Amino acid sequence: MAMKSKVLIIGGTGYLGKRLVKASLGQGHQTYVLHRPEIGVDIEKVQMLLSFKQQGAHLVSGSFSDQQSLVNAVKLVDVVICAISGVHIRSHQILLQLKLVDAIKEAGNVKRFLPSEFGTDPARMENAMEPGRVTFDDKMVVRRAIEEAGIPFTYVSANCFAGYFLGGLCQPGFILPSKDHVSLLGDGNQKAIYVDEDDIATYTIKTIDDPRTLNKTVYIRPPKNILSQREVVQIWEKLIGKELHKSSIPAHEFLASMKDQNYAEQVGLTHYYHVCYEGCLANFEIGEGAEEASKLYPEVKYTSVEDYMKRYL
Ligand code: NDP
Prior knowledge:
Blueprint: E1 7-10, H1 17-26, E2 31-35, H2 43-54, E3 58-61, H3 67-74, E4 79-82, E5 86-87, E6 91-92, H4 97-107, E7 112-114, H5 133-148, E8 154-157, E9 160-161, H6 162-165, E10 181-185, E11 191-195, H7 197-207, E12 216-219, E13 226-228, H8 229-240, E14 245-249, H9 251-258, H10 263-277, E15 290-292, H11 293-296, H12 305-309
Helix pairs in contact: 1-7, 3-4, 9-10
The chain binds NADPH dihydro-nicotinamide-adenine-dinucleotide phosphate (NDP).
NADPH dihydro-nicotinamide-adenine-dinucleotide phosphate (NDP) is lined by residues 11-17, 34, 36, 39, 45, 64, 83-87, 90-91, 93, 96, 116-119, 158, 160-161, 164.
């Protein structure tokens, strides 16, 4: 049997990154996690890194302000996965990856790089609105650098992180579902795709040694989880045994209300607009030159929307 690739995870203490570390270890990869000296005395992050070490990961010291340290880290492995932050209400550091691309190019040994993507496919968002298009534009800058450097890649388009979207019944600004009321975005009938964050990590690690995903985009579209906001609300209503009061926010009102929000919130709101009013995640066929994760890996028993939502009861 072929050897499993050694993996370096950057941003391993993040919301998605910690799940990537767990999945990489769980699937039997030698797993290296970048420890940035900048995290200083952030006790939660240091404790998390130590717990990865106890589970068998290797911690590697390296900093984005020390290029040689990145080159040295990258030289230890076959595959690099970056999960650096890219949500403005938390932090957005997507372009820092250009330094990582340079390090991977210089090191010359990496068989696959997975940049921090894990959302809407930025290649399909050429006409995205301001200010949220910055997320897609920056991710495309990184893609171009990867491709110009000739680095083998896989781009993972993970659709909606379930915690953000199911947790809030698809309403921006909410991550816990109400038992009384929901505001539908428009008619609430546009389909979106919700994925358990641990499943995103499982599928992502599955792709790294798979020749079928080399230099391709992999969309994660678990078939049972392609649902409209109304359908998500119905699942929640079934679980709580009660109907919610519903109101609706027409598109023009949603867009007008954005003006009162700060920049970071506006970025997030335009993403919700594309997903929930325009259906940007599910309104296209995957087509040639890309793959779909649940078809590639039918052995993964992904979490259904209903099972994910039981945690909020
Ligand atoms: P986090 O906000 O949890 O941050 C991840 C890591 O980024 C941190 O742990 C940290 O790594 C690293 N980081 C932050 N600032 C810096 C810096 N200045 N220098 C170096 N490293 C830094 O990220 P998320 O898990 O929320 O996001 C990961 C990806 O997932 C992004 O591409 C994002 O766009 C996407 N995403 C998609 C969503 C969806 O619904 N589809 C929802 C949320 C995110 P360290 O361990 O070194 O401290």
